[in-house]
Amino acid sequence: MVRRLLLGGFLGALFGGGLGAGYATLARVPMTPNASLLMAIAVGVLVAGLVRRPPWDQRSAIETVLRALLGGLLGAGLSFLAVRSVDFELPFAVPPMRDGTRFTEHAWLFPLVLGFVVGALVRAFGPDESPKKPAPGKPAAPPPAPAAASMEKTVA
Q1: Does 80 have pLDDT greater than 80?
Q2: If exposure means fewest CB atoms within 10 Å of the residue's CB, which of 6, 24, 82, 141 is most exposed?
């Protein structure tokens, strides 16, 4: 559980930080409250959609879309909570922003932290995808027969 939590947080921070760094490079200004909310939704959608299974996997296409929608709602909710309760002025200058920039207005620090939280939540509380081990005392299932061997039997 802890490993999945940390892995999801790392991947979320990577995606969120990348999105925030892109915004910081292009805009070079602090985020307004509306831009902060849109960034939180974008980080939530990106992180939740990519942190579990790849979206191009046909077995999980609907699951990926639903997870991305949930991630957008989670990002918006966490952004609202951050603005209402955790917002503070940074006591130091973190480039490219000046000293005294509010946490939720910072162009790459806020998406990085938000991506870590969303990624950790999505990865930790999702279904376990590890291979199932057989119960003690029961033999493991035999591997499936290769398709070529069964083809030879029917032709011969």
Answers
A1: yes
A2: 141
